[in-house]
Amino acid sequence: MATGLFFEGDYIWIEPVTGRQFDVAIGARVLAAEGRRIRVRDDDGQEQWLPPERRIKAMHATSTYTGSILVAVNPYQILPIYTADQIKLYKERKIGELPPHIFAIGDNAYAHMRRYGQDQCIVISGESGAGKTESTKLILQSWKPTLSSKHLETRKQ
């Protein structure tokens, strides 16, 4: 069902109610619409009805897939899409189950390595300032909980 500019399944940013300096928008997915109100599930898993006066904006995709290739654009701004909760969300999910994300690529490579015992390679390319170093850090960050728990299991034995 449509809500003016937004449709069921769309991803949006919900602007913070307060105007404090370090408040950031939170991501959400449109679940339903009723008149000018929309029902969403935010990145914290909370469902809520947003009144028409609540400030929201479309979540413009910074990533898309081309086969198993992730094409990402550096948004040059802080986005709340690289959190520990996002790492958990993409863990053990197949590519395409959720919106394109660097964590999906990292988890998929790690899972294939474990499952098939084959080396994996992730190629990160781009021009200067495109975000190659940050992308590498994000993939390593997403592996950290898995690698840390495996290391602890090995040490306990």
TrEMBL record:
Entry's Gene Ontology molecular function annotations: actin binding; ATP binding; cytoskeletal motor activity
PROSITE patterns, per the entry: MYOSIN_MOTOR
Keyword annotations from UniProtKB, A to Z: Actin-binding, ATP-binding, Motor protein, Myosin, Nucleotide-binding
GO CC term (a single one): myosin complex
Keyword ATP-binding: yes
Species classification: Eukaryota, Metazoa, Ecdysozoa, Arthropoda, Hexapoda
Originating organism: Operophtera brumata
Family (UniProt): Belongs to the TRAFAC class myosin-kinesin ATPase superfamily. Myosin family.
PANTHER family documented for this protein: MYOSIN, MYOSIN VII, XV
Name by which UniProt lists this protein: Myosin VII
Domain of life: Eukaryota
Positions of the Myosin motor domain: 64-157
Residues bound to ATP: 126-133
InterPro entries: Kinesin_motor_dom_sf, Myosin_head_motor_dom-like, Myosin_VII_N, P-loop_NTPase, Unconventional_Myosin_ATPase
Family matches, as SUPFAM superfamilies: P-loop containing nucleoside triphosphate hydrolases
Amino-acid biosynthesis is among the record's keywords: no
